[in-house]
Design a protein that fits this description.
Blueprint lengths: L7 E7 L5 E9 L2 E10 L7 H19 L3 E5 L7 H20 L3 E5 L1 H9 L6 H11 L10 H18 L11 E3 L6 H7 L6
Parallel strand pairs: 1-4, 4-5
Antiparallel strand pairs: 1-2, 2-3, 5-6
Helix pairs in contact: 1-2, 3-5, 4-5
Length: 197
Amino acid sequence: MAGLKPQTLILGVDPGSQHTGYGLIQSAGAALTLVAQGRFSPPAAWPLPRRLAHIHHGLTELASGYQPQVVAVEDVFLGKNFRSALKLGQVRGVVLLAAAQAGAEVFEYAPRLVKNTVAGYGQAEKIQVARMVSELLNFHEPLAPDAADALAVAICHASQGRWASLLPGGRSGGGRGGGWRSMSESDLAALSYTGKV
């Protein structure tokens, strides 16, 4: 990625097995505009595979409707609860799959970097992050629950992209990038399959 294009649609995602927040922004130079926000909240009584399918379906429809060029995802935070971390990893896998299927470039950012970029402090509280997201997007209506964190990830990517052209090789230094635009033809062919899902 040699910096952001003049106008780039960035979909930020904050994965969670109960609530997966999303926030779509348009980046045009230094200007950031809120396009869409919300969350996917499959019923807690559903088994995990069905909840994962619900999140995947929602993200697929969202990506199909808006066609973001970039999907920015919060990276795994390894807490003390192993089972929660495992579930979060499964949700992130579904998010990354939906992004790759949409043909978007995918970037992952550590929670501390996201908070530091948006709020200026790597251990900022959720309310501080939400307040700064509103200020940076000049949006002063209530944000959807769990959307603020997703929007923060998108803003983090936009910030990294603006500085990318100044770094060696013209790449962003903050996140890990990928996506099927960077795959070879043989890699793409390996994604093709026949059979029922």
